[in-house]
Amino acid sequence: MAIMNWVYVAGIVLVGVLFFFDREIHRYFGVHEIGKWVDKQNSAEIAELMAERQKIRGVDNPHAKKRIEDIDKRLKELGASVGTG
To answer: Which residue, of 38, 69, 82, 84, has the fewest CB within 10 Å?
Structure first.
């Protein structure tokens, strides 16, 4: 009886692996389009953050410095290169 359980488990795992790697299934569920949309949103956020960072770069107070640190942290999370200064 234990061998039959392993056969079922192996079958379920195989179906899961095939489902994960099947491009047609991904296309049907729009996984690729969702990824493209997320990339666009990330690019827009990066541009906004970099513009804000540039705008407050010359301000010399603790609030501006903290905001720049927060912006740099978020840019790193988004995968953008963070310049110094």
So the answer is: 84
**Residue 85 belongs to a domain:** no
- Cα–Cα distance between 25 and 12 in angstroms, integer? 17
Cα angle 51, 53, 55; round to 5: 70
d(CA 75, CA 78): 5
What is the count of structural domains for the chain? 1
Please report whether residue 41 resides in a domain: yes
Q: Is residue 74 one of the residues assigned to a domain?
A: yes
| 43 touches 54 (CB < 8 A) | no
**Per-10-residue mean pLDDT for the chain, 85 residues long?**
81 85 75 84 95 93 95 94 68
